[in-house]
Amino acid sequence: MPIHTSLNSSPTHHHVSEQVPHVSTQDMQGSNHMPTVDDEKALHRREYKQHIEALIFASDEALSVKTIRQALGQEKLTDLDIEQMIDELNQEYEQTGRTFRIRHIAQGYRFLTEKQFYHTIQKLMQPKLQRRLSQAALETLAIVAYRQPISKAEIEAIRGTNADYVIRMLLERNLIEVSGRGEGAGKPLLYGTTKEFLDYFNLRSLSDLPKPREIEELMREAEAQLFLQQEMNARLKVELDKEDKKSADADKE
Predict the structure, then answer these.
(1) Terminal CA-to-CA distance of the chain, rounded, Å?
(2) What is the pLDDT of residues 127-164, one digit of tens each?
(3) Which of 38, 151, 169, 228 is the most buried (most CB within 10 A)?
(4) Cα distance between residue 20 and residue 8, in whole Å
């Protein structure tokens, strides 16, 4: 599941100063300018945007509008107010050529780098991602994501192997959760994905998952590329063998 990379991958990277610098209306407009109501509104909006930016940057998970409003202590701010200020921050990032934006994923907001930097960041992050989730865990997670709610027995039937350890590990990581009980014998536990799953893969919702048809097309494309590469290598070997034979015949003469 190709995804963007989160800008703030570790909480140790966040540096929070002890004081938030205060910008007065006089600083913004000049000491000889009498502040107007519009000046005060603009100043407050600027300060709100700075605090919203700091909150999202400091968080290790997507922040909902409700959480942002509670952290600001400004219940009068509507969802639309906060969403508009986030849009304004993104416009500022675009205008100044920044490599990141604030994106809405997993019912919240977080910083993500732009798509064109994916391959560069992947080189840095891939070893870390591989350490985080094994191939077995990724396969099991994909089964749960596409077939949820699903029981352990159904997962094992699809993978053809015991799933106790992998399911326990995914539960500990909060990537899956018990979503109910089945109707069959013994009423088995049913599993589904979590908000943390969406956050981990930078998905807004489950509807953003690649469709099975899209996955099949990608697999066919990958198989075609592999076949083409094998054919090219085989032909190159034939040509090299011909050159070696010609050189050997020339040496004999």
Answers:
(1) 59
(2) 555 556 778 888 898 899 988 999 999 999 988 889 99
(3) 151
(4) 20
Structural domain span for residue 218: 212-253
Has residue 227 got a pLDDT over 50? yes
| Segment 79-114, tens digit of pLDDT | 999 999 999 999 999 999 999 999 998 789 999 999
Residue of 183 and 30 predicted with greater confidence: 183
Residue 158 sits in the same domain as residue 188: yes
Q: Which H helix or E strand runs over 64?
A: none
- Residue 99 shares a structural domain with residue 158: no
Token code pair at residue 212: 């099975």
Domain assignment of residue 122, yes or no: no
Q: Report the C-alpha gap between 203 and 1 in whole angstroms.
A: 10
Query: How many domains, the chain?
Result: 3
Q: Are 189 and 168 in contact (CB under 8 A)?
A: no
Half-sphere exposure of 137 (CA within 13 A, CB side): 18
Asked whether residue 226 falls in the same domain as residue 143, the answer is no
- H or E element at residue 103: strand 100-105
Structure tokens at 72: 């600001």
Pair 155, 139 in one domain:
yes
- pTM of this prediction exceeds 0.70: no
Cβ–Cβ under 8 Å, residues 7 and 99: no
Q: How far is CA 10 from CA 191, 212, 240, in A?
A: 28, 33, 51
